[in-house]
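> forwarded from #structure-qc
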């Protein structure tokens, strides 16, 4: 079981290294269920924003980048199994 978790963690980390054109938001994501123009921020363009939440028993870590129109763009997601299993 421990080796399976290690394999899944490695696969997740390696998957994060590849370029992903557009990540779809999950329930709990900052942009889930919204249009791009409905969430704006005062942060400067290029600023990175972190979001962490629990989704289907797994921890999700997301990184957003503030765009020139002050909307968020999801640029990275890492999913890790719950440590309590």
């Amino acid at each position: 079981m421990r080796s399976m978790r290690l394999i899944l963690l490695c696969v997740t980390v390696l998957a994060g290294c590849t370029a992903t054109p557009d990540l779809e938001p999950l329930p709990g994501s900052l942009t889930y269920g919204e249009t791009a123009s409905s969430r704006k921020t005062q942060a400067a363009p290029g600023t990175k924003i972190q979001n962490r939440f629990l989704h289907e028993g797994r921890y999700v870590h997301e990184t957003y980048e503030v765009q020139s129109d002050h909307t968020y763009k999801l640029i990275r997601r890492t999913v890790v199994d719950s440590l309590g299993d």
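QC bot note: The chain has a mean pLDDT of 80. The radius of gyration is 15 Å.
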